[in-house]
Every structure is written in C-alpha cells, then in structure tokens.
Amino acid sequence: MRKLLLLFFLLSVGTVHAQLQRGDRLILFDHAADFRSPQPVPEAGAGLSLYRRTDVERTVLQAGGGFGVALLDGLLVGGQVRASILSGEYGLRAFSLHPFVRYYFLNAAAPGAFGQLQSGVDYDGTDLTAFGSATVSAGVQLPVGGGARLTPYAGYTVAEGANSLQLGARLELRLRYGAADTTPVVRFRRGTLLLGGQLASATLTENTRRLTARTGAHFFLTRRLAVAAVAGYGGSYESYQFRDGDGERYVRFRELHLGAGLRYLLTTGHRLVAYGEAGAGRLWESLDSNAGIDYFPGSFTYVTAGAGAMYLLNAWLAVEAGPQLRYDLTNERWVPGVNFGFRIVL
Q1: Confidence tier at 145 by pLDDT (50, 70, 90)
Q2: What percent of the chain has pLDDT over 70?
Q3: 314 assigned to some structural domain
Q4: What band does 294 get if pLDDT is binned at 50, 70 and 90?
Q5: Are 308 and 275 in contact (CB under 8 A)?
Q6: What does the alpha-carbon distance between residue 110 and residue 71 come to, in Å, rounded to a whole number?
Q7: Does residue 13 fall inside a structural domain?
Q8: Which residues span the domain enclosing 273?
Q9: Residue in 270, 267, 196, 272 with CA at minimum distance from that of residue 228
C-alpha cells in the first residue's frame, strides 16, 4: 500500500511540474522582418511588418512566427509560417508553411528536452513545393522567467540535392492552460524587461553557410520610462563552380545592425497601454564576390519615432501594434511603416 501511495505521489508531482501539459500553447518568437524595415528598437517577435520603400517605390510586407498546442502532456502539434510580399516592378511573393510534431521525452519543469519532425509547403515566387523536404531536430528548453523558455536546438534537413545542418537558439513562450497565467495587469517598475524576437541560427550546406543573430530588450528605469538597445548580424557565403571549369565563384554578404532608443508609457495600470518611442541606429552592409556582381552596399544611419499600444494578454505576454517612421540620414529619405508583434514581459 505504501509503495502504491509513493508511486501515485511521484506521478502527481511529475504532472504538476511538467513543462508542457495538455492544453498548453506555445508561441515561437521568430523574426518577421529584415534589418531595413522601420521597426521599433528593438523589434517585437512573431508578427508582421508593412512598410514603403520610397527609393524604389515598393511596398514590402513581411511576416513570420510559430504557434503550437499540446494535445497531450509532452505532445505538441503546431506550425511555423513565413511570408514576404514585394509590390511594384520586380516584385516577389514567397511564403512557407511548415507544420510540426514535437514530443518532450524529458518533460520536466527545468530543463525540458524534445524531438521534432517538420515538413511543409514552400513557394519561392515561381515554384510551389509540397513536402519536398523534412527536418528532424532536437532541443532543450531552459526557463528564463514567467513562461519564457530559451530553446537551443539542432536540426538536419533532408531535401533533394541540398541537405543542411541547422544550429540555433530562440525564445519560446508557454501559455499555461487554465487560470495560472491570467493576471490582467502588469505593474511596470524599475527592472522590468520587454523581450521581442531573440534569435541565433546557423545553416550549413555543401556550398552555403548562413549565420543570423539578433537580440534586444527594453529595460524600465521607472514605471513609465524604458531604455532600449538592439544588435543584429546577418551573413552568408555561397560558392559554386562554373560549367566550363573556370575555377570557383563565391558571393559573401554581411550586415550589422546596432540601435538604441527610449520608450515612454503614456498610460499604466490597465490591460491596454499606450506608448511613444524614439531611437537611432546604423546598418552596415558589405558584399565581396569574384563573380562580377555589381552591387553598391546600402549602409545607412537613421533616426526613428513611433507610437502604438500594447495589450496585455496576461502577466507574461503583450501584443503590440503601431506606426513607425524612420528617416534615413545617409540617403535623406523617409521610410514609413506599420508593425505588429508579441513581447514577453519579465
């Protein structure tokens, strides 16, 4: 009898402290936009960006993020989506939708570990490919506060003629099923953090290497005023052989983004919080190639200002939207935009 009671106790503890329980939801904080879009400093995660490039008279829409729901304790199904639409001459419409199944073979409160299988549909503007690749990955989840989880992962993609290895880390937010996370109002105070789409990833194939890293946060100095900083890097290297055997050709591209800003809350103590913000930054771009590519680096310095509203879904998660206006000091032009996304509150 004592052994049965002990077994029941252990199973109960494991269920109470499981990292992922039936009905829980998970938001994957991927980045929606590139460095050129007029974003807040720093940008939110898992959302969309719509802006107007006045230099080429083109409207750009970019979206990205992921969502999942636990069907059983430790078993999650969901999907990731990315879309990029460029209007005007030489426009582009591309998207990807990749459903996944994830199983937590270590479903403890800290850390958790999982395996994942993912495939989906891709459209590059010309060809539509359905389930032309499959990715097997494994990851670890480490709590960083609230429902936020730092998630390092490794994956391998099998595709026709282009298998690849992925290594990376991102933020994911677990929303607990039930009443545990339903606190309606966040009491902003000194030390409160707002996090957006934190991401680091590397992709390696036989002829290609890509590296991306982004991080940033708002840090509140008072219950209304926050300072902000953002840093991002993107790099790629591609090589290929000419058909006539005339040696190897390569293209190497790099970009570095640094910015800082301030955000001031116009209202506090409610679910809906209005804010105004301003910031400045610089984007450096460089391209190196022996393939005769004619490209002028687009480095520029900018100032930006915006306003908007955050709606606090619970004590750890806010959704925000608002217009942003960036002025390119280098090329002397305005870049208007509208953004939508999620932030983690710690």
Answers
A1: confident
A2: 88
A3: yes
A4: low
A5: yes
A6: 21
A7: no
A8: 19-345
A9: 196
